[in-house]
């Protein structure tokens, strides 16, 4: 049974392609962690914001090497994890909230973490994720983050769009008025 974290991009011309492009959770996790090791992405990306044992489980599940992680002291790992900015966690939460609901929540969490991590790179999001093309990335977003994909159907600058959406959501949350504030305002206006 194929993993839910695998998708086949729709092909415009299926008769010429016997194997449509595939994106696997394993591939995007491996790519962003590799870019982090090479200095192309910030060091915190290497942890994906996960506790050490959970990251070890993810790598093991995806059949990725666990050697450097298994030999790393927990204090060293925690030092790297301390580098994770709040914006990463906020972006990860927003992506997870806008996931395709039929996707397994564990896979959706890992994908949200990986996409959020890739947002801290300097290239286009699809490139920092290691996806082969913009079209394949559009299919990836449509498969795993349908609400965002529908809302931003023609988006070409996903990093900018995701951070803009995050800023808008945060602004709405901080500018919303509480019920007690509304009641007080009503009372003051009556007098």
Please tell me about this protein's structure.
- This protein has 191 residues and is mainly α.
- The longest helix is centred in the C-terminal third of the chain and has 18 residues, at 158-175.
- It has one domain.
- The model is unreliable at 8-21 (pLDDT under 50).
- It has helices at 25-37, 52-61, 67-71, 74-81, 86-97, 105-118, 125-129, 134-144, 146-151, 158-175, 179-190, and strands at residues 6-8, 22-24.
- The chain has a two-stranded antiparallel ribbon with strand order 1-2.
- It is globular, with a radius of gyration of 20 Å.
- Helix 1 (25-37) runs parallel beside helix 6 (105-118) and helix 5 (86-97) packs across helix 6.
- Pfam families: NifQ.
- GO terms for molecular function: molybdenum ion binding.
Features:
191 residues, mainly alpha, two-stranded antiparallel ribbon, 11 helices, 2 strands, 60% helix
Concise account of the structure shown:
GO terms for molecular function: molybdenum ion binding. With 191 residues, the protein is mainly alpha-helical. The chain contains 11 helices and 2 strands, in the order ββααααααααααα.
């Amino acid at each position: 049974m194929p993993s839910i974290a695998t998708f086949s991009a729709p092909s415009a011309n299926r008769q010429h392609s016997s194997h449509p492009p595939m994106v696997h959770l394993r591939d995007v996790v491996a790519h962003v962690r590799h870019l982090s090791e090479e200095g192309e992405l910030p060091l915190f990306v290497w942890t994906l914001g996960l506790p050490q044992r959970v990251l070890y489980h993810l790598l093991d599940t995806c059949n990725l090497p666990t050697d450097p992680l298994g030999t790393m002291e927990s204090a060293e790992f925690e030092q790297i994890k301390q580098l994770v900015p709040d914006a990463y966690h906020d972006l990860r939460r927003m992506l997870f909230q806008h996931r395709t609901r039929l996707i397994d929540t564990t896979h959706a969490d890992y994908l949200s973490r990986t996409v959020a991590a890739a947002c801290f790179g300097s290239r286009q999001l699809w490139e920092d994720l290691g996806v082969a093309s913009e079209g394949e990335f559009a299919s990836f977003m449509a498969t795993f983050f349908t609400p965002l994909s529908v809302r931003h159907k023609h988006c070409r600058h996903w990093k900018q769009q995701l951070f803009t959406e995050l800023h808008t959501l945060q602004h709405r949350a901080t500018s919303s008025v509480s019920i007690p504030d509304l009641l007080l305002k009503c009372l003051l206006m009556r007098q």
